Amino acid sequence: MQKFTSIVVVFIFFLIVSPIISHAQNYGKIFTKVEAEKIFGKVTESQSFVRADFDKIMQGTEKTVMFKFIGGQLVILGDQRKLLYPESFKVDPKEQFYLFSKSMVDQLLLKEEALEIAVEHRQFSTTVTNRDFTLEESMICPPFCP
Length: 146
What we know:
By secondary structure, the protein is of the alpha+beta class.
């Protein structure tokens, strides 16, 4: 009986802690710009923003931000796939985007005080670059959309 009670306590502990851990998970990792080019390849498409304009776009989301170039146009989505940029664009709900935690984007922005922030498409990924640092290791949404 004592073993059964221990198993139940451990099980309940994991049920309580699991949502907290998954909620706190960060999506993305910061690399140097040189590392990013070696790992993820050369930039094939890019759009730069004045830092203040990029910060304003990021104010439209709290937890996640998603990027994708569609027909040469950069599209940025926030929480629940809310359109953040451009002001009007029709997004297919099944369209896959590269998802990052907003907290990781914020960490990237704290690395340096660059005047411009670039969102870049590479061979198999999309990255965000702040001068000498690049954010990658995103999740694909869908299927994974927290």
